[in-house]
Specification:
The protein is of the alpha+beta class. The protein is built from 9 helices and 24 strands. The strands form 4 sheets. It has a 10-stranded mixed sheet with strand order 3-4-5-7-8-11-14-15-18-19, with no helix packed on it. 29% of the residues are buried.
Length: 381
């Protein structure tokens, strides 16, 4: 269902002023479900103060003086209605600008000083360590078949690895090492699908035993676990264990000082220090390593899961954390010429497979920062 950006702006304005009809609610809901980016846009527009500020900026109006003059002329009773008018207009102004970009993928291109391109993200070769000591380099687009012990078979296809063959034999482990600037997908012998992000290592058995299914993770990965009530599935990290009951979730050990689990559907139990807590869909578990504290809360999971769909989502996140993430994805080093810029924050989304130049330009449009890329070193000032 395609809708013009002006109509979307109108629907969002009516939504925030509480004047949507049932039919309009249905139209808005359909639009939100069309594309994950539409929901991200809605989340970006949650603050009324941001609406009014954007309206002020775009119209160059002294809104405070205008509001006071209006109040003096017509009294307090109509003041609330006026605020709602400004609110609706601000939604329209902001959405017309942002949603057109979303719907038509158009980006303005301000200059970033001396940015040269680095290797495209996601293309770095992955290393597979076989149980017999062999080392195999896996490059995107390759294909091969490897016969493994105990009648198991490993097939490399264009989009990743697929294990098949015997189950229930003695476990022999393989290790998949995804470098900075890479990603890889794998289907384990039980049918479980795993998408590994950059700078991630997964150790797993060629075939699972009769009792349980255990894999070891360092880094960031998305799991879609094949349901099998008789054979529990475990993801073990350095600081946490996740017991899975057939579900879809993301695990990340790359955040400094913490491990996170984002549960999209199904149920998992997360445990650390000998205590297990059960999670429900749309919840985020964060384990603080130094404080030995586990916290589970309702959360917007997009910043933790959207990477697998080609988006990098940030919610009021410091620039330092954002650039740490980009450094792994684009295999670059970051140098801060000005320490204060580390604390600048950004809310929004970026396209994960865009070149580094496009990403930096998008950030520079929002944050008061300058980027200069020399070789693989990004200088931030």
């Amino acid at each position: 269902m395609k809708k013009g950006s002006d109509r979307i702006a109108e629907l969002l304005a009516l939504y925030y002023t509480g004047e949507l009809s049932d039919a309009e609610k249905q139209l808005l809901e359909e639009w939100l479900q069309e594309d994950e980016r539409h929901s991200l846009l809605l989340r970006e527009l949650m603050s009324p103060e941001e609406f009014i500020e954007k309206y002020r900026q775009s119209r160059a109006i002294d809104s405070d003086r205008l509001l006071n003059d209006f109040e003096n002329r017509v009294g307090l009773q109509r003041r609330k209605r006026f605020i709602r008018m400004v609110w609706a207009a601000a939604v329209a102004v902001l959405v017309l600008g942002v949603s057109i970009s979303l719907l038509h993928n158009e980006w303005q291109k301000p200059v970033v000083r001396q940015v040269t391109e680095v290797a495209l993200p996601g293309k770095a070769a992955t290393v597979l360590l076989l149980g017999d000591g062999r080392k195999v380099t896996l490059s995107p687009g390759d294909s091969m078949v490897v016969n493994l012990p105990e009648s198991a078979r490993l097939t490399e296809k264009q989009d990743g690895l697929v294990y098949s063959g015997n189950t229930g034999q003695s476990e022999k482990y393989n290790t998949l090492q995804v470098p900075r600037g890479g990603e890889y997908k794998i289907v384990l012998s039980d049918g479980t699908y795993v998408h590994l992000n950059a700078y991630t290592e997964l150790r797993y058995p060629v075939t699972f035993s009769d009792s349980n299914r255990i894999v070891y993770l360092s880094g960031e990965a998305w799991f879609e676990v094949k349901k099998d009530s008789e054979h529990p599935f475990y993801v073990k990290t350095e600081h946490m264990q996740v017991q899975v009951y057939g579900t879809a979730f993301a695990v990340n050990t790359l955040f400094e000082g913490q491990t996170t689990v984002a549960l999209v559907n199904g149920s998992v139990g997360v445990s650390a220090d000998g205590k297990e807590l059960e999670m429900q869909p749309s919840q985020l578990a964060c384990y603080n390593h130094s404080e030995h504290l586990m916290k589970i809360s309702e959360a917007d999971l997009a910043p933790y899961t959207a990477w697998r769909k080609g988006l990098l989502v940030f919610d009021d996140q410091p620039l330092e954390q954002i650039l740490n993430r980009l450094a792994l994805w684009y295999d670059i080093e970051v140098f801060y010429a000005n320490e204060s810029v580390r604390r600048e924050t950004f809310t929004g989304y970026l396209k994960r497979y865009d070149s580094i130049g496009v990403i930096l330009k998008a950030l520079q449009r929002t944050i008061a920062v300058r980027f200069e890329l020399k070789g693989r070193t990004l200088i931030v000032s």
